[in-house]
Prior knowledge:
The complex is a heterodimer. Helix content of chain A is about 10%, strand content about 60%. Chain A is mainly β. An 8-stranded antiparallel beta barrel of chain A has the order 2-3-4-5-6-7-8-11. Chain A has a two-stranded antiparallel ribbon with strand order 1-12. The longest helix of chain A is centred in the N-terminal third of the chain and has 18 residues, at about 1-20. Chain A starts with a helix and ends with a strand. Chain B is mostly beta strands. Chain B has one domain (about 20-200): Porin, CATH 2.40.160. Helix content of chain B is about 10%, strand content about 65%. Chain B is built from 1 helix and 9 strands. Chain B has one helix at about 1-15, and strands at about 25-35, 45-55, 60-70, 75-90, 100-120, 125-130, 135-150, 155-175, 175-200. Chain B has an 8-stranded antiparallel barrel.
Amino acid sequence: MKKYLIATCLLGLMISASAQDRIKKAKGIRMMGTFSPAVLTSIGEPVYYLTGHWNYYFNEHISLVGEGSYFMSSLKKPSEITANHKLLGGFNYHFKSESRFDPFIGLQMGIGLVGGQSLQLINVKRLNEVVPLISPTVGMNYYVGSIFHFFGHVRFNSGTSLEAFAEKRNMDEWQLLVGLGLNFGVKKG
Amino acid sequence: MRIIVLGVLLWIPVFLQGQDKLGRVSFGLRSTISMFNHGENTVGRGVGGQFRVQLLDRLNTEWFADYLPGTLSANANRRDYHIGWSVMYYLKDHDQFKRSFLPYVLAGHCFDYTRINVRDGGNFNVSYQDPNFRWTSAIQAGLGSHYNITQRLDLSLSAQYMMHFGKHLHLEESGNDITIYREDHGGIEGHLLVTLSMNYKFGIR
């Protein structure tokens, strides 16, 4: 127990010490790719995506965001969802300046490509539909140095499918993005 | 006519020359909710993009494109595509966009393409008396406000009433029979658009 406490304190001290170093993100880019899990809130269906994401920092507080998620599969078998790909863009507001810790909030908008199938009617063809999305995000990046960063983002993707399923369906979902990303143009101060 | 257009175009650089560079051009993405669609009890939610060009301290212009799908009935949907522009007049001095809330009135014009789709997979007899799409022109006016998160980044919320001038596209359902037709006379139909957008300004010193 004592060992764990000491290790935790040492880790805290290291993080605290490293947090004092400056990391300049203005005009820098961060990129990442990850498998991201999500849950569709209306039907409680877990799904996962292959997601790519980038930020361009206009300055220390504002960044432009682009994100694409490729629908891999639903974890529910059988599922009516055959596709739920997403393309999003928007802006993030970053609270801290020149800090390794980079908490932010953001708002993205974009489109989803939703495909559905009927599990009952075998003669009904699969449909693909373009669905407008709005997606508020909250998250934190931790810049290890000028090359790598860890990230943890939670986003709520909100959209409604009108035609891909037998009836209108709410496609709202919570999506989690966690992993290690790359930086370009980020400098130690 | 050409002389007037040329004259206006020539005056734009003169206006810009006399202006502070603040917020001259911005771009953003927008999400729009369309309500009270032409008397039908439908709500559509769309997505789009826009850019703004500020011509005077209190006068901004917004150029937008939206994609708005919505339900017409249990068996049919409509899709609207808007492309247009609005003039925004700031009710207060923008104070270099340091002011958190900056209200404005806006009015403008847009072109609209509407298409009605009958849901696949049902046992319907669909008859098209007219094509299931139409082009119209529209005018819109309303109120809005920026919330300036920083001088460069703003969140904007606006509500506008849009009136379309053209021949209405209708869907009539009777049992399993669906008929799509266009009225043979022109008219005005309207809807309320509530738009949330996030925008980044260029040209700030």
